């Protein structure tokens, strides 16, 4: 169950949004990359993020993950008309108690986790990954598992 403290943390996450977006843009500019809150900026966002975390401590990396997650979350929210939401459906849900974007696709109940997307980038370190993750969430392709059934 989501507690009052969890909701307060989510409100704090949203309150810090503008400052965090500005920090990401400032750091990008310092590193020679132009970004904005559009899908066209995803590749530069990836390059900046990967450049930053090369020399960061784990604690610093976690801070940048939160900042860049806000940034790509805002891109999805704006571009696909979504909303920030605190995932609270079930403690067994992978996104439980995590800020997610909802109402960004026609598929009811689908949640996009910018934090998980940025964490994936921090592990895989592959340019183009964010676009792939976002589009897989926006336009998911159903699995065809008929060929796996044994008759």
- The total beta strand count reads 2
Number of helices: 6
Low-confidence stretches: none
- Counted up, domains total 1
CATH fold field value? Four Helix Bundle (Hemerythrin (Met), subunit A)
* N-to-C span: 42 Å
Lateral arrangement of strands in the main beta sheet: 1-2
User: How helix-rich are the residues, as a percent range?
Assistant: 40-55%
- Secondary structure class reads mainly alpha
- As a percent range, the share of strand residues is 5-15%
CATH-derived architecture: Up-down Bundle
Mean pLDDT, to the nearest integer, reads 92
Biggest beta sheet summary = 2 strands, antiparallel
Identify the overall geometry.
globular
Element pattern in H and E: HHHHEEHH
Short description:
The chain is mainly alpha-helical and 151 residues long.
């Amino acid at each position: 169950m989501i507690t009052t403290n969890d909701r307060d943390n989510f409100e704090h996450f949203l309150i810090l949004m503008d400052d965090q977006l500005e920090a990401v843009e400032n750091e990008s500019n310092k590193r020679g990359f132009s970004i904005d809150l559009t899908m066209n900026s995803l590749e530069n966002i990836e390059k900046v993020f990967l450049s930053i975390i090369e020399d960061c401590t784990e604690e610093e990396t976690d801070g940048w993950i939160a900042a860049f997650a806000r940034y790509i979350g805002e891109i999805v929210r704006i571009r696909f008309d979504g909303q920030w939401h605190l995932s609270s459906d079930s403690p067994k849900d992978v996104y439980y108690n995590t800020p997610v974007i909802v109402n960004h696709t026609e598929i009811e109940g689908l949640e996009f986790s910018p934090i998980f997307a940025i964490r994936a980038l921090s592990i895989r370190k592959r340019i183009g990954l964010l676009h792939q993750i976002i589009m897989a969430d926006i336009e998911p392709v159903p699995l065809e598992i008929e060929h796996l059934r044994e008759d």
